[in-house]
Specification:
binds NADP nicotinamide-adenine-dinucleotide phosphate, single chain, about 250 residues, seven-stranded parallel β-sheet, alpha/beta, 7 strands
Length: about 250
């Protein structure tokens, strides 16, 4: 039997990049995957690939910074599949600028989406998972939440805060068999990082012990571990998947 056979898992930001790789990896391990993006049409490719491989996919849409999106998404999964076993809060945005030029709006939107969105989805799965007396939650953070990054004060603040959110939730929910962890990727090749120049990419790669950027599949493997049977005794942790970038 596959490691995640029939597990019902919600992945936000499943249309592209890391979220899409996570959705495909989980479906490949036997999970039923509900993917969410800003528009359902953006999930066509992910859904087609999951279904072509024999998996089950539920496409959902909404803005993760709106608590109603999270409530509606979880209600839709419960209606379709009768419960929810896993959450991967992956969707996120950047609005980079140096602190001196960063607008309050760019700070607010990144915190509302990256931190607020994770909170809304974590909260929305809490009650059904408590009733089931079990569940797995992975919040997608970032290595820069631990080490900082010039030009990303808003993003780093939001990602760092996920660590506190996960630890507190792990303490509150552990007695119900629910684990909550953060996977913090390093520099991963996706749309989010494609705006960098070749020079910037090289400078980043030079800092990575493994000497290359990560792939979305590198992150998906770590997420799958925490959602699967081998990850059941890990909670409240931050797993850096950064090729050694944070080692200095
Ligand atoms: P990406 O390629 O830009 O994809 C972002 C995903 O999030 C898309 O599916 C997008 O949906 C969705 N999304 C964005 N804003 C949303 C909103 N308000 N409501 C609902 N969905 C929304 O990003 P990525 O590189 O895969 O990053 C995924 C996660 O990993 C993010 O949390 C990011 O911070 C984190 N991360 C990335 C890296 C990296 O190097 N790439 C490193 C560390 C951490 P649409 O298609 O509908 O727009």
């Amino acid at each position: 039997m596959s490691t995640l056979q029939d597990q019902r898992i919600l992945v936000t930001g499943a249309s592209r990049g890391i979220g899409k790789a996570i959705a495909l990896h989980l479906a490949g391990a036997g999970a039923k995957v509900a993917g969410l993006a800003t528009r359902v049409a953006n999930l066509d490719a992910t859904g087609a690939e999951v279904e072509a491989a024999g998996g089950e996919f539920l496409a959902l849409e909404g803005d993760i910074s709106d608590p109603q999106t999270a409530a509606d998404a979880v209600a839709a999964i419960i209606q379709a599949w009768g419960g929810v076993d896993g959450l991967v809060a992956n969707a996120g945005i950047t609005r980079d600028n140096l602190l001196i030029r960063m607008s309050a709006e760019d700070f607010r939107s990144v915190v509302d989406t990256n931190l607020g969105g994770s909170f809304h989805f974590l909260k929305a799965v809490t009650r059904p998972m408590m009733k089931q007396r079990g569940g797995r939650v992975v919040l997608i953070g970032s290595v820069v939440g631990a080490i900082g990054n010039p030009g990303q004060a808003n993003y780093c603040a939001a990602k760092a805060a996920l660590h506190g959110l996960a630890r507190s939730a792990a303490l509150e929910l552990g007695s119900r068999g629910i684990t909550v962890n953060v996977v913090a990727p390093g520099f991963i090749d996706t749309d989010m990082t494609s705006a960098l120049t070749e020079e910037q990419r090289q400078a980043m790669a030079d800092k990575i012990a493994l000497g290359r950027p990560g792939t979305p599949a590198d992150v998906a493997g770590a997420v799958s571990f925490l959602l699967g049977p081998s990850g059941g005794y890990v909670t409240g942790q931050v797993l850096l998947v950064d090729g050694g970038l944070s080692l200095g």
